[in-house]
């Protein structure tokens, strides 16, 4: 990267180190320690400890790497495994990618502003790698790629910067699992992800989070979608997250581009999750959809959505549905539509409350007990088939969700 | 099979049924006539056991057992099945799944769906965006899978086109074991406004429910004729049909 560019980014980041984010608890980043990084590169993920393999599996990362086009694992602040098994699919750490490709600086901090808030600034100033995934023009991944960002040491900050590029006409499916070691009590995960979906390319990005007690999480994501490009984001969080806040932005700059955000979140007591998606529809024929399903069993979840129609002939739709399953628990739906010209088609629906009595009784009339009826409805509410994934990926995600559901049902 | 004695039912503190008596024997199909708001659906919901339909007096006996205080799902498990007029949509729960939930041993879901021309709806969310006819077919497919010995049908013909009404008629006849003679056990109670269903399903008796009571019973076709000619009020006081 050119020194001038680097200096400029560093300067901007330094000016933003105290800039609070508009949403979410303000986290004191000075309390986290530096990772010792006393771990080696792992050639075979099967050689990880049984405990870690289980943690990875719970967030959709298969250490056998069967039916995967590649894998990337980062423990704490160091890349510990990266492999691509399909020609035309590149997987490596972002530091390595920056060394390899001069042109990568043209993408660096282009979809997310380095000075967006103190968390993006922190990532720039304390960069700890992250993944670089790229499909070459026309290449379609047969199986999904998997990436895992793992917090192993106590009280560290993981500051990753990911870049995902789908070149023209390519197709890329990614499963990302972010999780902590079972004994980690405190830590923070700061993850900047910048996506570039070129003309006619398609990317599905399924992110599954599984955190521990006092882990704070601040992902910062930006996506550019070019003409006829498709970006599909699926986010699943079914375990406790002490403090998680994210609000990815999708910029639909190409004609007939599509972005869809599906979110499935369950918050037990002690969780505070503030999650949303913002879509800028900037080209004719652009389509965006935000679908969120949230469940509270005592925690707080805020589900946001902001759709901005900037040119005529765009379509946007948002659905925020929330279930409160316990006496205490907060589900807040904040949908926002903003049409900046006439001739935009934008709509939303939101509903928050307990499970409808008539739905429970309907299933009871077919012979289910009240508890069985409720679990059937909750399972349906968390149905991943809304995500529009290829069948084998859907089956894998479904299995993960079913495993996680046992924890709160 | 089903015997109702002096049944009083209220909804939100208001009494709707003021003492209904009804007896339906094994292998019998009865129809229930009555004007809008008479309490017909209330009677069916109370028999099925919906908690909102509070039984304040009387008894419901099913195969000799007092089920008045049994919860909804226990009644379903004992063999009472109901087709709803306006069932709820359940997002994420597929039609195939609810048929599976209803199914008793040895039932092929695909065969049930095929028989009711429902194959294309199996992977859709339950009742989500279904037409009137599709809802009826979905309801009956659940009952076909459930195989209840006593069937409650709330206006099975409403919203169904002529082509599909015979399909529904055959399904109802199958549920009520109309193809069997000696071995037939199943019985049912059908609400009808128009009486069209009587062209497809043989009924053994008719009852008129009006003002929260059943003042009158008789031959269903004759009663339908009387109602069409003279209205519900006149039918209710007619001495010949009782």
Topology:
The complex is a heterodimer of chains A (409) and B (242).
Chain A: H1 3-15, H2 50-58, E1 70-75, E2 78-84, E3 89-93, H3 94-100, H4 118-125, E4 131-135, E5 145-151, E6 156-166, E7 171-180, E8 186-197, E9 202-210, E10 214-225, E11 230-237, E12 243-246, E13 249-252, E14 258-268, E15 272-281, E16 287-297, E17 300-309, E18 314-324, E19 330-339, E20 344-353, H5 357-364, H6 370-381, H7 391-405
Parallel strand pairs in A: 1-5, 4-6, 5-7, 6-8, 7-9, 8-10, 9-11, 10-12, 10-13, 11-14, 12-15, 13-15, 14-16, 15-17, 16-18, 17-19, 18-20
Antiparallel strand pairs in A: 1-2, 3-4
Chain B: E1 2-11, E2 14-24, E3 29-33, H1 40-48, E4 54-62, E5 65-66, H2 72-78, E6 80-83, E7 90-94, H3 95-102, H4 109-115, E8 125-126, H5 132-146, E9 150-154, H6 162-175, E10 187-191, E11 205-210, E12 213-218, H7 220-237
Parallel strand pairs in B: 3-10, 3-11, 6-9, 9-10
Antiparallel strand pairs in B: 1-2, 1-4, 4-5, 7-8, 11-12
């Amino acid at each position: 990267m050119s020194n001038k560019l680097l200096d400029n980014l560093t300067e901007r980041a330094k000016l933003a180190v105290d800039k609070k984010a508009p949403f979410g608890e303000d986290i004191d980043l000075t309390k986290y320690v530096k990772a010792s990084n006393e771990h080696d590169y792992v050639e075979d993920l099967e050689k990880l400890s049984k405990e870690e393999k289980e943690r990875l599996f719970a967030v959709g990362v298969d250490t056998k790497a069967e039916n995967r086009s590649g894998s990337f694992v980062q423990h704490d602040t160091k890349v510990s495994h990266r492999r691509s098994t399909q020609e035309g699919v590149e997987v490596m750490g972002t530091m390595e990618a920056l060394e390899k490709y001069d042109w990568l600086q043209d993408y660096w901090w282009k979809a997310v502003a380095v000075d967006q808030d103190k968390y993006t600034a922190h990532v720039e100033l304390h960069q700890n790698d992250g993944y670089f995934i790229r499909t070459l023009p026309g290449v379609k991944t047969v199986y999904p790629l998997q990436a895992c960002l793992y917090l192993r040491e106590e009280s560290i900050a993981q500051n990753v910067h990911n870049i995902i590029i789908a070149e023209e006409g390519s197709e890329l499916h990614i499963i990302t699992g972010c999780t902590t070691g079972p004994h980690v009590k405190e830590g923070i995960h700061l993850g900047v992800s910048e996506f570039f979906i070129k003309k006619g390319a398609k990317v599905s990005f399924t992110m599954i989070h599984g955190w521990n007690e006092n882990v704070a999480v601040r992902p910062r994501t930006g996506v550019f979608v070019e003409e006829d490009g498709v970006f599909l984001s699926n986010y699943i969080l079914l375990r406790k997250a002490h403090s998680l806040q994210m609000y990815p932005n999708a910029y639909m700059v190409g004609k007939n581009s599509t972005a869809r955000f599906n979110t499935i979140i369950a918050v037990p007591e002690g969780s505070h999750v503030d999650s949303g998606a913002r879509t800028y529809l900037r080209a004719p024929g652009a389509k965006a959809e935000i679908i969120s399903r949230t469940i509270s069993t005592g925690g707080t979840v805020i589900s946001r959505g902001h759709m901005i129609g900037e040119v005529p002939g765009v379509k946007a739709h948002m659905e925020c549905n929330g279930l409160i399953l316990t006496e205490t628990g907060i589900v807040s739906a904040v949908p926002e539509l903003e049409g900046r010209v006439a001739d935009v088609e934008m709509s939303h629906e939101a509903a928050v409350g307990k499970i409808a009595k008539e739905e429970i009784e309907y299933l009871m009339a077919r012979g289910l007990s009240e508890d069985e009826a409720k679990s059937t409805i909750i399972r349906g509410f968390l149905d991943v088939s809304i995500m529009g994934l290829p069948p084998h990926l859907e089956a894998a995600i479904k299995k993960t969700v079913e495993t996680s559901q046992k924890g709160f049902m | 099979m089903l015997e109702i004695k002096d049944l009083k039912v209220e909804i939100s503190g208001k009494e709707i049924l003021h003492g209904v008596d009804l007896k339906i024997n094994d292998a019998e199909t009865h129809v229930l006539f009555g004007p809008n708001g008479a309490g017909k659906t209330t009677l069916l919901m109370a028999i099925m056991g919906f908690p909102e339909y509070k039984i304040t007096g009387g008894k419901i006996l099913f195969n000799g057992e007092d089920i008045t205080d049994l919860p909804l799902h226990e009644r379903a498990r004992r063999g009472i099945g109901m087709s709803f007029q306006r069932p709820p949509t359940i997002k994420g729960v597929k039609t195939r799944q609810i048929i599976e939930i209803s199914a008793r041993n040895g039932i092929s879901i695909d065969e049930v769906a095929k028989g009711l021309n429902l194959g294309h709806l199996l992977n859709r969310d339950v009742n989500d965006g279904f037409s009137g006819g599709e809802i009826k077919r979905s309801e009956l497919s659940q009952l076909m899978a459930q195989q209840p010995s006593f069937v409650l049908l709330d206006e099975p013909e409403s919203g169904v086109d002529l082509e599909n009404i015979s399909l529904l008629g055959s399904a109802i006849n199958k549920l009520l074991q109309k193809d069997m003679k000696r071995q037939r056990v199943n019985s049912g109670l059908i609400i009808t406004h128009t009486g069209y269903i009587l062209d497809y399903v043989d009924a053994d008796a008719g009852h008129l429910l009006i003002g929260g009571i059943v003042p009158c019973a008789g031959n269903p076709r004759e009663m339908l004729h009387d109602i069409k000619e003279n209205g519900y009020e006149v039918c209710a006081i007619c001495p010949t049909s009782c």
